[in-house]
């Protein structure tokens, strides 16, 4: 009896006692509100109909409703008897879901699924807008997030998850298409296209996540150690020691060939680069183990020559028991000893260091697809004949002009001493380092995999994860400024064989406090080491 009462009430609704969805029953005539005038002539409702008669009318009423809904909402309530229309509808749903993931199910009737897809799509657009805005106004915090292992892990998970979700929305769209009602000729084509379009975002998401996880691995291996911590700017500046090292066959261990300090204004990004000749002598050390070992200065050292770059060699070759916590901070005793010497020479507090292994330099440049250099004068690819064992004649010449060098040629550009001074070579090494730093971000866009594969073999630093993003932001800021300074502590500014460190510190202080865009060039009138 209860079921009969429900059906009776439903039939009465169809007769006009209620109106839902914009459809009205007027005098037993089903019509849209906008077209009541087109209804049949009025008839008195048959309120005396029995229950079996009402049940008999249900299929007719339902069919009428379906026809009206098919006309008003053809994608959601299609006329499944028309294969041509169902084919067009299938293509419309597939294309809509490609443009807006979730639109296909939403338009075809699965509202809950479609609305979820639409929300996620809007969230993705919002995230892109936020990232763009952060890159424009707050790049530092964004890069901080992207140079932490947990930040990259979150990004990788989101990229992979959204790629999978886009694939799922396409599969749901394909289910809503009702393939068995589509034209037989187009049925297979619709299926293949939908499946391909569903697999592509999954593949892209997986590929992107794999590259991000590779970057996460590189961040984990390159930046800092377990005890590395954030260091605050000193006098409003962050100072980074740059070392370019090489291990030759005739050398005792590793020797830094290129030594410089990049001093950044922690707020504006203004950069002052201070180049220090590796052959500098008669220097001292900041407070620490090396100062205790050489309290009067670096004289009578335990290696063949007492140059600045000999500090690293002596400490590591003889394995002095000092700087025991260096390894836990992502450094080593040779670098810490060199840092103490540079702090004494420049009078600056060095927060971090970056060590570039020249042995792997060529691999990094090849992974980048080459590096573009403006060669000022011919560079002979060879070494001077000084009677050393294994000397070989030059193998070629790098001609002047703007050109893209591969790894092998770029390494010769940085190392060549043929008929050139040590200061010439130092200058070329810094030019090459600057070019790589400037061109690496662009190269990462299309060659991130090969670059990340060799980066941890070339670069070593004690910057903690996250802080590297802050330094990267300062580097990018400095590229857009015209007051960056390059100061070379070589003749005429300073004679590395007889240095006046007090005068050098005055030059450094003036370069930092009153930056002038023009570079103080190094003299080329100096003997090769």
From TrEMBL:
InterPro entries per record: LytR/CpsA/Psr_CW_biosynth, LytR_CpsA_psr
Arranged from A to Z, the UniProt key words for this protein are:
Membrane, Transmembrane, Transmembrane helix
Q: What is this protein called?
A: LytR family transcriptional regulator
Show the stretches that span the lipid bilayer: 120-138, 144-168, 189-213
**What is the source species?**
Gulosibacter molinativorax
Query: Any idea where the Cell envelope-related transcriptional attenuator domain is?
Result: 256-440
Asked if the Swiss-Prot or TrEMBL record annotates the protein with the keyword Membrane, the reply is yes
**Which residues belong to the signal peptide in this entry?**
none
Q: Which family does it belong to?
A: Belongs to the LytR/CpsA/Psr (LCP) family.
């Amino acid at each position: 009896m209860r079921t009969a009462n429900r059906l009776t009430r439903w039939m009465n609704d169809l007769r006009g006692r209620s109106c839902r969805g914009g459809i009205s029953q007027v005098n037993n005539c089903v019509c849209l509100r906008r077209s009541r005038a087109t209804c049949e002539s009025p008839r008195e409702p048959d309120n005396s109909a029995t229950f079996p008669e009402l049940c008999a009318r249900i299929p007719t009423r339902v069919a009428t409703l379906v026809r009206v809904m098919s006309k008003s909402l053809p994608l959601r309530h299609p006329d499944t008897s028309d294969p041509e229309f169902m084919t067009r509808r299938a293509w419309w749903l597939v294309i809509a879901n490609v443009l807006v993931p979730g639109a296909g199910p939403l338009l075809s009737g699965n509202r809950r699924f479609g609305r979820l897809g639409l929300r996620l799509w809007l969230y993705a657009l919002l995230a892109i807008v936020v990232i763009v805005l952060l890159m424009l106004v707050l790049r530092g915090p964004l890069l901080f997030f992207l140079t932490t292992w947990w930040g990259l892990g979150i990004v990788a998970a989101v990229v992979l998850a959204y790629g999978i979700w886009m694939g799922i929305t396409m599969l749901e769209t394909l289910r809503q298409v009702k393939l068995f009602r589509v034209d037989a000729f187009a049925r297979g084509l619709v299926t293949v296209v939908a499946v391909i379009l569903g697999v592509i975002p999954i593949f892209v998401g997986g590929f992107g996540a794999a590259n991000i996880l590779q970057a996460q691995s590189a961040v984990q291996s390159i930046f800092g150690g377990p005890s590395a911590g954030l260091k605050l700017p000193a006098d409003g500046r962050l100072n980074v020691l740059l070392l370019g090292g090489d291990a030759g066959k005739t050398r005792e261990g590793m020797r830094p060939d290129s030594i410089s300090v990049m001093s950044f204004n922690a707020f504006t990004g203004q950069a002052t680069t201070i180049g220090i000749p590796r052959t500098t002598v008669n220097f001292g050390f900041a407070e620490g183990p090396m100062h205790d070992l050489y309290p009067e200065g670096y004289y009578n050292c335990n290696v063949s020559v007492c140059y600045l770059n000999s500090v690293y060699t002596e400490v590591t070759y003889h394995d002095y028991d000092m700087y025991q916590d260096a390894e836990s901070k992502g450094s080593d005793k040779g670098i810490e000893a060199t840092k103490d010497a540079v702090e004494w020479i420049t009078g600056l507090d060095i927060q971090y260091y970056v060590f570039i292994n020249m042995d792997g330099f060529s691999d990094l440049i090849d992974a980048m697809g080459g590096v573009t250099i403006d060669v000022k004068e011919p560079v002979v690819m060879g070494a001077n004949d000084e009677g050393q064992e294994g000397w070989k004649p030059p193998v070629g010449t790098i001609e002047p002009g703007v050109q893209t060098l591969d790894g092998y040629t770029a390494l010769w550009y940085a190392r060549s001493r043929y008929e050139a001074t040590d200061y010439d070579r130092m200058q070329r090494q810094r030019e090459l380092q600057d070019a790589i730093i400037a061109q690496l971000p662009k190269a990462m866009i299309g060659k991130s995999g090969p670059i990340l594969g060799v980066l941890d073999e070339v670069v070593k630093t004690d910057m903690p994860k996250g802080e590297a993003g802050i330094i990267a932001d300062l580097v990018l800021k400095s590229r857009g400024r015209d007051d960056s300074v390059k100061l070379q502590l070589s003749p005429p500014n300073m004679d590395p064989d007889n240095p006046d460190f007090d005068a050098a510190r005055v030059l450094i202080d003036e370069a930092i406090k009153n930056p002038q865009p023009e570079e103080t060039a190094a003299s080329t009138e100096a003997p090769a080491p």
